[in-house]
Known about the structure:
The protein has helices at residues 2-13, 21-34, 44-74, 77-88, 111-114, 123-135, 141-155, 196-206, 211-218, 309-316, 318-329, 331-344, 351-354, and strands spanning 225-226, 280-281. The chain is mainly alpha-helical. α3 (44-74) crosses α7, α6 packs across α7 and α10 crosses α11 (318-329). The protein starts with a helix and ends in a 15-residue tail after the last helix.
Amino acid sequence: SNDERVRHSSSARRPPTSASPRIMDRANARVAATTAHITRAPTSAYMEDVVNQTPYRAALRACRDDLWKFIDETNANPIFVRLAWHDAGTFDYHVRSWPKCGGANGSIRFEEEMSHGANAGLSKALKYLEPFKAKHPLLSYADVIQLAGATAIEHAGGPKIKMRYGRVDVETPEECAREGNLPGAEPPFGDGSPDAATHLRNVFGRMGFSDREIVALSGAHTIGRAFKERSGVTENGYGAKNGTKFTGCPAGHGGGGGTCPFSARHDGDADKGVGMEGGRSWTKHWLKFDNSYFKREHDEDPANLLWMSTDKALHVDDEFRKVFEEYAESQEAFFADFAAAYKKTERVRRAVEARGRDRVRVVTWDMTP
C-alpha cells in the first residue's frame, strides 16, 4: 500500500542508531584488512634509528674491506675463525640473563678469559684486530671479532654468512665466562662424558645445537691447524721444520725454506705462502674452505694429517655419520647448513634486552655489511 511505502521510505531516511560492539568490531576488522597494505608514516623515533643505523653499517662495510685485504696478505683465515668461535662458544641457551648467558660479547679480549687453556695462541688474533677496532671505533669488539670470522670463511672460498651485527661488549673481566665451555679433543673430557659423541652433544647441546648442526660446525676443521704449543694434540709445533708436508715443508719434503710445493689457499696462489709455517692440519689444503674435511683425507695420509677422537665420533656415531656422509657427497648441503648453524653462534640477546643503556645500538641488529 501507499502507507507501507511511506513507512519504509521514512525509516530509510532516519539517522542510524548506535551500532552494537560486535558490529563495530567487524567493521574495524574490514577497515584493517582493506588498509593493511598501506605503509604507515614512520615515527620520529623510527627515523632517528634509521639515521643512526647508517654510520654503523658504513663502518661495518669499511671494516670488512680492511679485514679482507689483511686476510689476503697474511692467511689469517683459521685464527680469525677460531677467535670468533671461542668468543661465541661460551653461550648457554638455558641462561636467560645477559651477560651470564655468555656468547659473542667480546669477553675474550680480557686476560681472565684469554688465559683459558682452550684459548692458547688466540692473543695473536686479538692483537691483529686491535688496529681495526681503533680505526672503526663505532664497532663493538664483539662485532669486529665476528665480522673477522665471517670474512675469513668467505675469503677462503666458504659461504657468505649473513650475520647480524649490533652486539654489546661486556665491560669488565668479572663478566667473562667460566673456563670449560668449549669442546675438548680427547678423553678424559672435562664434563665427564664417557665418549666423544656424548661430549659433543653435551657441549653443543648447551648452546642449543642439534646433531646436524654439530656435524656442520665441526666442518670448520676443513681449514686451520693444531699446534703442540697450543692444544697439545699433535707433536707438530711452530716453524717449518716442525710442520708436515702440508704445513711447513720440512727437510725431506721438497719445499725448502718453508715454501711448500703447492698452495694451501683456495685461490691456488702459492706466492702468498701459508702464513706462519708449522703445526698439523686436518686437510691438505687447509686454507681452503670446502667439504674436504668430510672426505677423510686423514685416512690416506695419517702421518701428515690430524684426526682426533671428536673428529672420529662424527663418522662412528650412527646419527652423526648420516650427516657426515651427506656432506662428503654434497658441498652445497654442507655450506647451507654451516652458514645457518654458524649464524646461530651470534646469539646474544638483542641489545635492548641486554642492557638499557643509551649507548647501546639496537638499530643495527639485523644488518649485514
